[in-house]
Amino acid sequence: MRGLWTAIAGRFEAGEDSRGGGEYALMIALVAVVATGVALLPLTQLTGRWTEVTQHSRPKARAMRLVHPGDERGTILLVMALLMVVLLGVVGFAVDLGWLFWNSIEIQHGADAASLSGVVYVAEDTAQAKVEGRAAAAENGYLDTTLGGPDVVAIIDFTDDPSAVANPFQLRATVTHTVPTFFMNVFGMNSVDISRTAVAEYVLPLPLGSPEPYFGNDPALGRWPNFWGNIHGYYTGKGMGDRYSSQCVDWQSASGCTKNDERRQSLNAGTPNAEGGYLYGIEIDPASVGSLLTVELFDPQFTRGGGDHVLVGDNPQGNSPGPATTFMLYASDPTPLNLTDGNVLECSVTYDPRDPYADFNMDGSADNSDDLDGDGDLDWDDVELGYPGGVAALWEPLCTIPITEAGIFPLRVMINDSGGSDQRGLNRWSLRAFTSGGPTPRVYGLGDMAIYANVDGTLGDTEFHLAEVDEVHAGKGLVIELWDPGDASGNHSVEIRDPSGNTPPCTWTAEKDTGSGSTSGTESSCVISTSGGKYNSWLVTIRVTLPADYTCSDDCWWKIHYNYPGKTQDTTTWSAHIEGNPLRLVE
């Protein structure tokens, strides 16, 4: 019996069948059946003897009972006493096994909590990941010896042991707890050490739009990624390209409009509890800790009297003065898409609408009549000539802060929900960041981004950075969503390209086709026709399966190529993500 106890206890100690109870329940049941059978064996033999006696003639049976009046009753009493001892042993056996099984489940919960709580920090701060993991285990009742407790909570990341986890975004936690026994101590086993392990993975949001220290065009330095950041005013229609900021579906909407069900309500602008708008990330290298971070915005105000074809492209709607726009910078955050978990707001500035800065002839609008260099167009050369301080003066400081830790500094762009019709208009802008020491920061969209692409297809500059997809995602699905893509005349298409410049196979679906084309397809090369504005005001979803051997070396940026025959002004919202829950247990 002691050998059986030892074998079963060994399975608990080894951590086998950590999340299931089928084997243990079956084992308990089998042991109980065997033990009960052994206990009932003497009674079965006695029953056979009694049957043998009663098979004789009645007089003989009566005579036999008279000759041996108390033998059988004494035997039954003895057997029942022995049986009670065995049955009590079986009950005790089952109690201990149930107790060990229940504790193994609780220990597994502690390991799950430790890995899930710590893994969100592992990409940026492995030491903090371990602190948070042990704290989560303690909250579940398992206090590590380093914290003065009796348990062992071992947490391992990729830098500790690359063989313990599959990639740097995973964290392994093992909780070992000593469980006292009730009846097993009769056989010299006073306790059993049970260990359980969990591995969690946290998939960070894919960087979008830019591998550079700037997001959007920079006319002052001549850097042209061929797009601007964009955000719509409250009553500007979703159909004009901004998927999440617009209150209404229809173009030039006002109160009483058809509501945009996907809209993110803008609340508490300029406060730590702000919600809505779009998020961008400023990624700071650990080597920059101790230096200063400066964030600047190009033309952050909505400018009246402009239009899609004018300079930055701020587009008024009717007689509306346009939206007020708020830019908010937060401290480094391991969960940059969740700014409700105690984030520190470093600075916030709200920019009210302004009169056109390039209205050099003072007629109330900026247009070709303000051409100062006589080339027939209002362009940045005219601004350089006529605006005080030139084009560079349109860059305005958001704030400068000390860098006390590395990581992703989220930046929120949002409009204020006044609810008035004066909130109509499309505000376009750019963003850049730099540090006083260390490597250059990276600036990109987080989760999704609304942009205004004013490009000239005849020049061939119609390729945009879409998303950075690390090779750790090999074998997974890349999902790309394009809202209102391809607003341009003539025949044109959208093409997805991998980091090597190849066009992979894909599948795609569209909410609707305003023409007579398809709303889904499977492409051997991911090129999707968008001619004639067929997906105007509709969503196109593209899925690319990353090869199991997907690699990307130092450049992991996927790109989107607009095959345009000429000039276009396209406001659109893009997003890209890896399929599945970003925070999950993988073991």
Characterize the structure shown.
There is one protein chain. This protein has 587 residues and is an alpha+beta fold. Helices cover 22% and strands 28% of the residues. It has three domains: 2-202, no CATH class; 205-446, no CATH class; 455-582, Jelly Rolls. It is built from six helices and 25 strands. The strands form four sheets. Strands 5, 6, 8, 11, 13, 15, 17, 19, 20, 22 and 24 form an eleven-stranded antiparallel sheet that branches. The protein has a six-stranded antiparallel sheet with strand order 4-14-7-12-9-10, with no helix packed on it. A four-stranded antiparallel sheet has the order 1-2-3-25, with helices on both faces. α2 runs antiparallel to α4 and α4 (71-122) packs antiparallel against α5. It is elongated and about 120 Å long. Mean pLDDT is 84; it is low at 43-67.
